[in-house]
Amino acid sequence: MTPAAPGATKNGRSAIQLSPMEVPKASDVLANELRERILSGEYEEGTPLPPERELVVQTKMSRTTVREALRILEVQGLVRIKAGRAGGAFVQRPGGESMASSVALLIRGQQIRLAALLETREALEPFCARLAAKNRTTEDLKALDAANDAIVTAEGDLDAFLSANVDWHVAVAHASKNELLMGMMTALSRAIYAATENEGFVDETVRNTTVRAHKSITRAIRDRDPDAAVRRMTRHVHSYAEEVLAVDERVDITVPGED
């Protein structure tokens, strides 16, 4: 009797089993290829990519696949698509706003608690103030002063106060000249603004305290005194967090995106 071949069953069929295989979509493959070339610097910012029809010829992919790949890159902030006769896809580098948008989506998508947002700000913003005191420019000081003036003139207008407050905190982050901190603080400040857009959180005492704290921190940044900037910012964001969380126990309020 002839012995059965290795891997064969009694009926002659193969007993070999393969695991399911995931094959990437063609559009993802093309998007990955273009992404790497953009991020590596091979394609400089503002460089036009070949037209869709040319990409179809070069890649041997369908026009639908090419279009989907470009759309992926557009969502990721790596290309800018312009319509019209002189339009097309143009290379662009992701900036701080791209990071801020991504962090904002994470905050809303994960329904991050207001307490967690305030904790993160307490961890990051004093260091932003330190860097701002070291790296600030004349234009940065103008932005800080303008935001402080807007906070003072907001008076009873809650939206104007919160908007100017965000502008000041974002201006501190920009003065740090650290792109990652700029993106993080922009997203955090906007999320905290949206979560505290309630009269219960911001009374006259909080406003007056905020004005004094901002002016004191701005003075340290202007004087290029990083130690004072850290101390004052630490005290400010911690006190603000305590005030907000104390009110949060009494006011029915949530971070945007929560049900």
TrEMBL record:
| CDD domains given in the database record | WHTH_GntR (cd07377)
Give one GO term, molecular function aspect: DNA binding
Q: Where is the HTH gntR-type domain?
A: 24-94
Q: Does the keyword Transcription apply?
A: yes
Q: Which InterPro entries match?
A: GntR_C, TF_FadR/GntR_C, Tscrpt_reg_HTH_GntR, WH-like_DNA-bd_sf, WH_DNA-bd_sf
Gene3D superfamilies under this entry?
GntR ligand-binding domain-like, Winged helix-like DNA-binding domain superfamily/Winged helix DNA-binding domain
* Keywords noted in UniProt: DNA-binding, Transcription, Transcription regulation
The name this protein carries in UniProt is: DNA-binding transcriptional regulator, FadR family
State the organism named in the record.
Rhodococcoides kyotonense
Please spell out the taxonomic lineage of the organism that makes this protein.
Bacteria, Bacillati, Actinomycetota, Actinomycetes, Mycobacteriales
